[in-house]
Amino acid sequence: MTAYDLVIKGGRVIDGTGTPERIADVAIKNGKIIEVGTITGEADREIDATGALVTPGFVDIHSHCESGILD
User: Cα(25)–Cα(31) distance, rounded to whole angstroms?
Assistant: First the structure.
């Protein structure tokens, strides 16, 4: 059995707490973030996020802005 369902490796993590961004891995198990940092356990799936932003748990792309529809 693997330790995690998914590990996102080496991305620029911005967690929404106001702390500076950092390069880190994000481990997910059963739909929840289990660990952020240097992940060494095995995962069913791994994503290389080098050069990409990883924004776990705080970005909501839903909007109530209808200005684009009304223009």
Answer: 16
Is the Cβ–Cβ distance between 45 and 6 less than 8 Å?
Answer: yes
Helices (H), the chain: 67-70
**Which residues, at least 6 apart from 40, have a Cβ–Cβ distance to it below 8 Å?**
none
Q: What distances in angstroms separate CA 21 from CA 4, 24, 25, 38, 66, one per listed residue?
A: 23, 9, 12, 15, 31
Token pair recorded at residue 2 = 């693997």
- pLDDT digits (tens), the chain, 71 positions: 689 999 999 999 998 788 899 999 999 999 999 999 999 999 999 999 999 999 876 666 666 665 555 55
